[in-house]
Design a protein that fits this description.
Layout: H1 38-69, E1 75-76, E2 103-108, E3 117-121, E4 127-132, E5 135-141, E6 148-154, E7 157-164, E8 170-178, E9 184-193, E10 206-209, E11 212-214, H2 216-227
Parallel strand pairs: 1-5
Antiparallel strand pairs: 2-3, 3-4, 4-5, 6-7, 7-8, 8-9, 9-10, 10-11
Length: 229
């Protein structure tokens, strides 16, 4: 199963409009006889500066995604073996009657940097795109029935996951946490193996969270907590 480095691109056919909120202007005027509290004004100025910077980053990402959706820029994608898989979104299959087609999805912060990424709905979970440094990259894509793409929250962080739960004898959840540079900063897995059975069998399942073997009861708790079933 090929894994992406986080420098990938995707193409889609639908267009969405992405807007950013306007910046607030602080009212620092004083009435007659009022004393200036410099520490409060400095805190307010710092808060507004941070808001302006965040709005600027959001605006830049929105503009880059808009250009990628329109096909004006290429989405950059590279496999671990160095194979270039870059593409333009309008070149992706777009027949609504074809299950292998793609369409523009939601915006979510998938790399824990406070800026939302673009989800492209499609086969095996579609593609996740990240805008940074003036380019659009593919963070991850669905990798077949043994690598369905999704994302999940755990311990206050978002993990991009590849899931294999449609084959007999096993359930495998691979979880990667990304930073805003497209780098994986933490990886873990939640697995259950019961090779002599097709359906999940609690009595036979050997379960792990990361490298730690866990009781089946704990496995089911974590599966519910992280993946919702």
């Amino acid at each position: 199963m090929k894994r992406f480095l986080g420098l990938c691109a995707t193409g889609v056919i639908l267009c969405t409009s992405i807007t950013a909120c306007g910046n607030k202007t602080p009212d620092l005027s004083l009435g007659v006889g009022e004393e200036v509290d410099e520490s409060i004004e400095e805190d307010e100025a710092s808060d507004y500066a941070e808001e302006d910077e965040e709005a600027s980053i959001d605006d830049e990402a929105a503009e880059l995604f808009s250009k990628a959706i329109d096909g004006e820029i290429v989405v950059k994608a590279t496999y671990e073996d160095g194979t270039d898989a870059s593409f333009r979104i309008p070149d992706l299959p777009n027949d609504p009657d074809d299950w292998q087609s793609y369409e523009i999805g939601d915006m979510e912060d998938l790399d824990n940097d406070g800026v939302e990424e673009l989800i492209i709905n499609g086969p095996y979970g579609g593609k996740y795109l990240d805008a940074r440094d003036g380019e659009v990259y593919q963070l991850a894509e669905g990798e077949g029935t043994a690598g369905q793409l999704c994302y999940a929250e755990y311990n206050g962080k978002t993990y991009i996951c590849h899931v294999d739960n449609s084959h007999g004898g096993r359930e495998i959840f691979l979880m990667d946490q990304y930073n805003g540079k497209g780098e994986i900063v933490d990886s873990t897995s939640l697995t259950a193996e019961y090779w002599e059975y097709i359906e999940f069998n609690a009595d036979a399942a050997e379960c792990h969270f990361g490298d730690e073997e866990i009781p089946v009861e704990r496995y089911l708790e974590l599966r519910q907590e992280i993946f919702g079933y």
